[in-house]
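Figure-free illustration: sequence to structure, shown twice.
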Amino acid sequence: MNKSQVYSLLLKQLEGMLSMETDPVSNMANMAAVLFNGLENLNWAGFYVRRGNELVLGPFQGNPACVRIALGKGVCGTAAQTGKTQLVQDVHQFAGHIACDSASKSEIVIPVFKNSQVWGVLDIDSPALARFDAEDQIGLERAVEIFTAHTFL
């Protein structure tokens, strides 16, 4: 399957799964599992939830991760502070990158909104350089839209 077909299938799976549940922890856990197992060449997929001026680790798939990230720090903190998706081809070239897993080489982080405020972020890491592109951004932003449409935040 090409990338477009993979995202089409994953988004249908997420729509079906998340439409039957509103609990944020359950939906974050299932979404992390679907993405981690459904996308190739990942080493981490999960959520950070905003608590004041920091992000706190939520449900994820992959190796243990940083527990708290200040807003504006690293790729996740930057996405949370700016409210904009961060697509990073080489994390070692990202000023202030936080190396929770030294195997990570590229990353994409999508902000999750509640009432026009950043509620948290979806973070996806890969051990490959330049793993993510515009098609991944579109697919993962759509996944976050499905998450927010069905989850009681």
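We now fold a second protein in the same way, so the two outputs can be compared directly.
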Amino acid sequence: MNGRWPLIAGLVLIAAGLAGIVGLYPALMPGGMGMMMGTDGMMGRGGMKRMMQAMMGNMLPLGINPASLPQPHSEGARLMQHYCTQCHGLPGPGLHTATQWPAVVTRMVARERMMSDRDMMGIQALSAGEQATLLAYLQKHAQIPLNKATAKGLDTPAGRAFSATCSQCHALPDPAQHTAADWPAVVLRMQRNMVAMGKPAPPRSTLHAIDAYLRKYAKPPGEEDSEKGAGLDAGTR
């Protein structure tokens, strides 16, 4: 095992795409590997997640309930649950915009294939066909960014509170992607996500201002809200 540790550590560091994390090495030393390894000496999914969490902390997606995914029984949702949770929690499609997802998926698949080829961490990689299916799903349900050139009310106190707060973790969302009735639940979840990620919780007055802005420019009542807020989970990757 000792002879394989340097390669395991190197693979994980490359996979995480990190640099300058000397301060985290103590958490990754062999003495702590017992809890992460399976009975066959291979790192299981749970161990991989713990190692990634030790290295990357609140940079990882917090993870959402699979039932909250858009079209949760679709092939795209199944692929997300199977592959995207190997190293971290389940991300929502709204973590990135449609134009951002291709680069993210390419980067994640490259890391999966690198680790899968070594057959050392129990990591599985998507096939080319699965990658295309997953990307199509993510882009279909991606975050819809606000067009600042045509957006209304951004220069108001509520608009400024919305811009400053909601751009900290993801692209500034278009209020019209949800109805006024659905936005409060999304705002509440975002507040909890910010706290979980170590960001200061916005004061109540700011949350009220954000809620008021989103409601004012929300999707008209009666139009279907296919996301139900699931795609707006905050986090970075």
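Summary for the second example: Helices lie at 5-16, 45-56, 75-83, 101-118, 128-140, 157-166, 183-196, 204-216.
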